């Protein structure tokens, strides 16, 4: 106990406050400080008003928002039939479909960029929109399926009995009930698409630029900090708006689940439902097309089938394109992803515990703090990775040991990306733990730490392991911040791929595709194991966004 103005502060409140300082300190030091420093330098350099007043800036912002909106629409339309398949259908192969739809989301952006470039060598707006949608079909499918499994089908069946067609029953009954999940997923997809970097860099070809790539150009090539700062502010405003809308939709979604029945057993489709299953199968086939194209490209050469790219992984590429071999770059990726995952899981688990405690605390202030913290934890996903990376280089020298030269610099940046995803996966499971179990254990004299160890952790352990594996494969493919921070003598594999495709020489191109295929195989294997481990009937611990 402690005293404050004559009142007794419970030890639990003190402990919760101290625990919450860890994720807050992590965000302040490794996110807020670098971003504010870069934006501040941009304003001090002057010229921000000029950039904001330039019509070209707003055309760039308009293209970014329009392309992100188009990708979001495509992802939602493609994800809904797949969500139905995952939530309502009992057929052989549904488990495989659950894994297939998740694979694109965790593929490295350079892999997806090269996969679509194998289909559209000249790039353009259409492949750019489709590639961003390809990434995010999983967000829609898995998020909507999570709610769809809880919807009572009797309302839809009643509408059908009254003469409504399958489409009218879906439009009038099912879709409004799914609205919160669809809105939540759409907000997250829009966030990811609006801040896409690797895909635009590879498929845009310098002709089509977004706010993210323009920030990179102005910061790295032009050293125009004022222009980059102005663009970052526009991007940040759009991101905050998307996060607020997503948070509101998630809250409605949780309330909707409470009002409906428990999970409904899936069954075989009937009648017109087979058309929806067929649409889902078509979507899954389209998701596999770029992956197959990339694998074919990795074993192709100018003279036919060739494994030259795989053999070249033992070298530094044609004309010394890299400073280390491809296998060394792969080892760098594995080491950085391991460090990033350990750090992100430590911070993410603590943040999830604090958010659940704040949500269950009496009074609106605690719940408001929890909602604010929840939104703040998602912000790193929507702020330019270039801004964060460059901010590291101008701020972290003030910390003991000068982290700018530390091998932990890349893991810190990667942890900032995967920590919000880990929170989104662990938090719903923690919230679902029956509070009466905790109360019973506390009544029997268990301390809060023992309650966590004996009650909470065994129930969420599968989600924690799944989140760690999911975060690991995301870190393996992280490109935005890593491309800016990785040293030339210690590149990760995605950075090496980007270097190879920017250098002339057929062998460099073949080596890049072979590296992408290697990354993709590792990702697919990891996702299959994670999804199999984390799955529960009708839904998965992987996919709560």
From TrEMBL:
Residues in ABC transmembrane type-1 domain copies: 61-244, 330-530
Gene3D superfamilies xref list: MetI-like
UniProt GO BP: transmembrane transport
Keywords, in A-Z order: Cell inner membrane, Cell membrane, Membrane, Transmembrane, Transmembrane helix, Transport
GO cellular component: plasma membrane
Record field: transmembrane: 16-40, 60-87, 99-119, 125-145, 177-205, 225-249, 274-296, 340-358, 378-396, 408-430, 459-477, 511-530
Name of a matching Pfam family: BPD_transp_1
Domain of life, per lineage: Bacteria
Topology within the bilayer: Multi-pass membrane protein
Subcellular location: Cell inner membrane; Cell membrane
Protein family according to the UniProt entry: Belongs to the binding-protein-dependent transport system permease family.
PANTHER family in the record: INNER MEMBRANE ABC TRANSPORTER PERMEASE PROTEIN YDCV (PTHR43357:SF4)
UniProt name for this protein: Thiamine transport system permease protein
Organism: Amycolatopsis echigonensis
Taxonomic lineage of the native organism: Bacteria, Bacillati, Actinomycetota, Actinomycetes, Pseudonocardiales
């Amino acid at each position: 106990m402690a005293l404050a103005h004559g009142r007794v502060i419970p030890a639990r409140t003190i402990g919760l406050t101290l625990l919450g300082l860890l994720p807050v300190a992590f965000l302040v030091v490794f996110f807020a400080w670098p971003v504010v420093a870069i934006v501040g330098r941009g304003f001090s350099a002057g010229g921000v008003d000029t950039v904001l007043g330039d019509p070209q800036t707003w055309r760039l912002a308009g293209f970014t928002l329009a392309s992100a909106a188009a990708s979001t629409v495509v992802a939602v339309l493609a994800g809904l039939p797949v969500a139905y398949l995952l939530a309502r259908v009992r057929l052989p192969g549904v488990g495989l479909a659950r894994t297939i739809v998740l694979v694109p989301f965790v593929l490295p952006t350079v892999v997806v960029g090269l996969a679509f470039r194998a289909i559209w060598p000249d790039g353009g707006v259409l492949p750019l929109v489709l590639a961003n949608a390809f990434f995010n079909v999983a967000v829609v499918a898995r998020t909507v399926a999570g709610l769809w499994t809880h919807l009572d089908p009797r309302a839809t069946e009643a509408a059908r009995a009254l003469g409504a067609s399958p489409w009218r029953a879906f439009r009038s009954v099912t879709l409004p009930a799914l609205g919160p999940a669809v809105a939540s997923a759409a907000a997250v997809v829009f966030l990811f698409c609006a801040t896409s970097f690797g895909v635009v860099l590879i498929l845009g070809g310098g002709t089509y630029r977004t706010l993210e790539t323009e920030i990179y150009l102005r910061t790295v090539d032009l050293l125009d900090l004022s222009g980059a700062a102005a663009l970052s502010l526009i991007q940040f405003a759009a991101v905050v708006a998307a996060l607020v809308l997503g948070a509101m939709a998630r809250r409605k979604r949780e309330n909707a689940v409470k009002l409906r029945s428990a999970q409904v057993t899936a069954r075989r489709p009937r009648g017109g439902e087979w058309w929806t299953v067929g649409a889902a199968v078509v979507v899954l086939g389209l998701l596999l097309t770029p992956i197959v194209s990339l694998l074919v490209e990795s074993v192709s050469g100018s003279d036919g089938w060739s494994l030259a790219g795989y053999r070249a992984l033992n070298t530094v590429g044609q004309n010394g394109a890299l400073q280390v071999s491809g296998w060394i770059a792969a080892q760098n990726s594995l080491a950085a992803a391991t460090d990033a995952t350990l750090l992100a899981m430590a911070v993410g688990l603590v943040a999830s515990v604090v958010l659940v405690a704040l949500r269950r605390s009496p009074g609106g202030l605690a719940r408001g703090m929890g909602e604010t913290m929840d939104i703040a934890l998602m912000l790193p996903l929507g702020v330019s990775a270039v801004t964060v990376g460059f901010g590291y280089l101008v701020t972290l020298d003030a910390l003991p040991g000068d982290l700018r030269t530390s091998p932990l610099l890349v893991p810190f940046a990667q942890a900032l990306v995967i920590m919000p995803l880990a929170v989104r996966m662990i938090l719903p499971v923690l919230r679902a733990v029956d509070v009466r179990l905790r109360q019973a254990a506390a009544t029997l004299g268990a301390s809060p730490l023992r309650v966590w160890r004996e009650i909470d952790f065994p129930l969420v352990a599968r989600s924690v392991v799944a989140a760690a594996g999911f975060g690991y494969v995301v870190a393996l493919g992280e490109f935005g911040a890593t491309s800016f921070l990785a040293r030339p003598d210690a590149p990760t594999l995605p950075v090496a791929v980007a270097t190879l495709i920017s250098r002339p020489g057929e062998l460099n191109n073949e080596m890049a595709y072979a590296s992408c295929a290697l990354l993709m195989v590792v990702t697919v294997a990891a996702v299959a194991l994670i999804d199999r481990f984390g799955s529960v009937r009708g839904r998965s611990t992987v996919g709560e966004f």
